[in-house]
Amino acid sequence: MNAYGKRRHNLADNLAGRGLAMAMFEDTEGRRDPSIRYFCGHPGDALLFIASDGRSMLVPWDMNMATAMASIETIEAYTDFERTPYKAMAGAIARLGIKDGARIDLPSVTPYPMYINYVEACPDHDFECSEDSSAKTAAAMRAVKDEAEIAVYRKVSAITDKAMDAMEKGVRAGTLATELDVALFIERFLREEGCERTGFETIAAGPSRSFGIHAFPSYTAAPFASDGLSILDFGLVYEGYTSDVTMTFVRGKLAGKRAEMVDLVQQAYTEAVAMCGPGVKSRNIALRVDAIFSEKGYTMPHGLGHGVGLEAHEMPAVRSRADNDWTLVPGHIITIEPG
Hints:
The protein is α+β, with helices and mostly antiparallel strands. It folds into 3 domains: 3-142, Creatine Amidinohydrolase, Chain A, domain 1 (3-Layer(aba) Sandwich); 145-252, Creatine Amidinohydrolase; 255-339, Creatinase/methionine aminopeptidase superfamily (Creatine Amidinohydrolase, Alpha-Beta Complex). The chain has helices spanning 3-17, 35-40, 63-69, 85-95, 112-121, 134-143, 147-173, 179-192, 256-275, 282-294, and strands at 22-27, 46-51, 56-60, 103-105, 126-128, 197-198, 203-205, 228-234, 236-238, 241-242, 245-251, 305-307, 314-318. The protein has a 5-stranded mixed β-sheet. Helix 1 (3-17) packs across helix 6 and helix 9 (256-275) runs antiparallel to helix 10 (282-294).
């Protein structure tokens, strides 16, 4: 059994433990969920049904793409169900042998009118839609990377490191002199290295625009890495998984508050990374960083970090909010982004 099959069986065991016969995942416009890729490798626009006995069925919009990329025992074209999710649900119930009266879990983001339509289309089954849906279970599973995912992350991290080195070289040589130069370099570089896309819109903000948490617009034709502080925030997606890097470029001699802030960011980063390890509460790491800044009269206006994966922002949370109860475990891949 490959990694996708193991993940589906882990989810199936969870369903059985909760008394659910089947769960549906939906990755469509307006309700995106990369968990479908997590469970079978298909990149998007599909419904996925997983039964508590481990059997599953993918209903993609694009059969050619699913045939090429999905790893799953049953694939049925969406067109076979007149391109309606309710008939696809009825088809999955029949194909997977879900008994009358069984409980079926819908994604927590399912709109109420759609919920009613599922009930009316399949009146012999009980549908559930709650915040504690299988989508939440899948998000928790995705937070802890398995061996296959860690192997992907070693690759995407190496490509990202290579990009960082190349950009530093280009900035020093003067060939990457504007925000646009840097952003377009990333777009070309990642594709030459076999990546799919950026993990999010690249933020390249030169000295005139680096005051914001997330510059708007994300990049312009303005100078980059000229005298002062410039910020670059980017990620590369390889086999679905994104990196996430923030780089600060400094040109010229800094003094006063600018020098103090750069030193504080370096101190915060160094101490935060040193604190990371199994059994450590991520909130405690964020609280330490908050203290480093507050001792000098500064406040960090955002969370310290977050998990990464099939999305740029995943669990676990790495922030000082009181509701953060995450404890780091082997398999967590997180960012540390003080500033």
